[in-house]
Write a structure and sequence with these properties.
The complex is a heterotrimer of chains A (225), B (209) and C (245).
Chain A: H1 2-21, H2 23-43, H3 48-71, H4 76-80, H5 83-88, H6 94-123, H7 131-155, H8 163-173, H9 175-190, H10 195-224
Helix pairs in contact in A: 1-6, 2-3, 2-6, 3-6, 3-7, 3-9, 6-7, 6-10, 7-8, 7-9, 7-10, 9-10
Chain B: E1 5-15, E2 18-29, E3 33-38, H1 44-52, E4 59-64, E5 67-68, H2 73-77, E6 80-83, H3 95-104, H4 111-120, H5 136-150, E7 154-158, H6 166-181, E8 185-189, E9 201-206
Parallel strand pairs in B: 3-8, 3-9, 6-7, 7-8
Antiparallel strand pairs in B: 1-2, 1-4, 4-5
Helix pairs in contact in B: 3-4, 3-5, 4-5
Chain C: H1 4-10, H2 12-44, H3 58-85, H4 88-120, H5 128-149, H6 153-185, H7 200-232, H8 237-244
Helix pairs in contact in C: 2-7, 3-4, 3-6, 3-7, 4-5, 4-6, 4-7, 5-6
The chains are: A mainly alpha (225), B alpha/beta (209), C mainly alpha (245).
Amino acid sequence: MSSAVSCARLVIGRDLRLAFRNRTQLLHPLLFFAIVTTLFPLALTPEPSQLRDVAPAVLWVGALLASLLAIEFLFREDAQDGTLEQYALSGRSLTWLLFAKTVSHWLLSGLPLALMSPIVAYGLAVSPAAMPGIAASVALGTIALSLLGAISAALTLGIRRGGALLSLLTLPLAVPLLIFGAQATARAIEGASLVAPMYFLAACAVLGLTLAPLAAAAAVRISLE
Amino acid sequence: MSAHRLSGDSLHVFRGERHVLRGVSFVAEGGDYLEVTGSNGAGKTSLLRTIVGLVHAESGRVRWNGLDIHADAGAFHAQLAYLGHESPLKADLTPRENLHFAIGIRRRVGGDEIARALAETGANGFADRPVRTLSAGQRRRVALAGVVLAAVPLWVLDEPATHLDAEGHALVGRLVDRQRAEGGIVIAAVHAPLPVAGAGTRRIGLTLQ
Amino acid sequence: MDWTWFHRFGSPPHLYGLAGRLTPWFAWPSAFLIAAGLYGGLVLAPADYQQGDGFRVIYVHAPSAWLSLMAYTWMAVAAAIGLVWRMKAAHAAAASCAPLGAWFTVAALCTGMLWGKPMWGTYWVWDPRLTSELVLLFLYLGYMGLRSAIEDPQRADRASAVLAIVGVINVPIVRYSVEWWNSIHQAPSVMKFGKPSISWPMLTPLLIMFVGFTLLFVALLLVRLRGEILRRERHARWVAEVVAG
C-alpha cells in the first residue's frame, strides 16, 4: 500500500516539476478561458443584467473548452518519449499510475481554472456572494472532466492531428457535466441551494474515479500495441 | 539465485495486414545472450515488443519461468527492463532527476546508487544538465544507467548501442556480460554485433517478410 | 468447460456462412411485420383525438428511437466480447452495428422533427428526447470517427471498443441529465408529447412495428457483418474460394 502511495507521489512529483520548468504552457488554457469569456460581452452586450443571465453558460462552455485544450497534452509527451511504455512495463498497476497522472493534470489545469472562475464571473457582473459556489462547482466538474478526458486522450494517442477528434469524443460524453455544472452556477448566482446539482457532479466524479483510470489504462495499452 | 528461463514457441505476429513474425521460436536461460538481427523492417522491434508483452502474438506464447507472461503480467514486468528505440527521458529534467523518478516507481533507490550507475555508464559528467542539452549518445548512456539500476534479471534492449561511440559499444558489451555473469538474461536487437563473450550467445536472424 | 464451440462460432468462415443462412429468416418476417404494422397503423388505427393523423409518425419514430439505443447496446456488448476474448468476429459485429445505429438515430431524429412540426410549429425544439437522441448521434459519429482515424485495424477495433463501453455507461447518464435539465427549464408554452390514452387498435400496430424493426435491424446487421468479414479477411484463402464460386 505504502509503495503504491509513494509511486503515485513520484508520478505526480515528476509532472509537477516538469510543469514548473515549463510554466508558460500552464498559462495557455487559463488565457484561453479569459479570452473566450471576454468575447461574450463584446459579442452580446455590456449590460450587466443580461451578462448575469448568460454567465453560467459562458463560464461552463469556456471552462469546458479550456480544459479540452489542456487534455490534449495529458499523455502526448509521455507517449512520444516512451514514458508511457515504461509505465506499462514497470510492474506497477498502469491504472494506478494513470490515475496519479490524472490527479496531477487536474492540479495543473482544473484547479487553476476553478480558482480563476470567480474572476471571470466578476467580469460577467456576478455578485461576489456567488463566488465560492461557482469555484466549488468548477472544481468538482473539472475533476470529472479530467477523468473523462483521460480516456479520450488515451484513445486518440498516436492519431495524427487527433485534436479535433478528441473534442468530438469528449464533448458528447461531457454533456451531463455541462448541465449539472451550469445549473450549479446558475443557482449560486440566484443564491439558491447548490445541493442537487453538486450532488450530481460529485456522483459523476465518483463514477469517473472508479472507472476512468481502468478505461484509460486499457486505451494506453492498445495504443502501445 | 534460481536459474531463469525465457522461451517463445512459434510466435506469429501481425502488424496491420503484414505478417511480420512467422513462427519465431527461442529459448534463453540464465547467463544467455540472445542477439536478434535482421534488416530494417524485418520485425526486430516487433519481436522484442512481443517478448515484453506490449504486443500480443496472434498465436504462440512467450513464457517466463514456464508461465505465460500474460498470466501475471505485473510480476513478469517487475523482473524486466525494456529499453526501446528512444531513450525514455524527460527533456526538461536532468539525468539524475530522470532516473530518480523512473526507477523510483519500480523500487526504492538512493541518490548514491544513481550516482554509481551514472558513473558506470560514463554519464556523471553531465548528470545535472537538462537532458535537452545532451547529445543522442549521451542520452543513451543515461538510459543504459536506468537499465542497470532496475536491477532485474531480464534485459530486453532495442539497439542499445545506437548513437554510441566505439567506447560506448565496449561499455554495452561489458554491461551485458556482467548481467549474464550474475545469472541474468539479455535479449538485444542490433545492427552490428555487440562485443560480448562467445559462450551462451545465440542469434535469431529475422528476414524481411 | 469446453470453449471450442465459442471459437468455432467466432471463426470468420463459419460466421460468414451462418450469417448468410440466417439472413432470410429475419428479413422475410421483418418485411411482413413492417407491412402489417404500417397497414394497421396508417389505415386501420383511428386518428388521435388530440393530434389527428400526425400521431401516426409514432409507428416509425418509436421503433427507430428504440433501435438507436439497442444498436448502441449491442455494439458495446460485441465490443466488450471482442476486447475480453480477442475475438475478431465480435469486433466485426461491433463495427457493423455503428452505421446502422447511426441511421436509426437519424431516422428517429427526422421523424421526431416531423412529429414536432404540427405540434410546436417548428421542426426543432429542445425536447429532452430529441436532445438526447442528438447526443447519441454525436456518440455514434465519435465512435466511427475514432475507428476511421486509426490506421491499424486491430488497434482501431480495440480502441473503439473501449469507447463503445464508456459510451454505453454514459448514455443513461446523458438521458437522465437531459431529463433533469428539461424539468428545470420547462417553458409552460411548450406542449409535451401527450400520453394519449392509447387504445388497442393503436397499440397493436405499434408493437408489431417494434418487432418488425428489430428483425429488420438484425437482418441488416447480418448483411453488413458478411460484408465486414469479407473486407477484413480479403487476403484469406476461404474468401477467394467464396468469391470464385
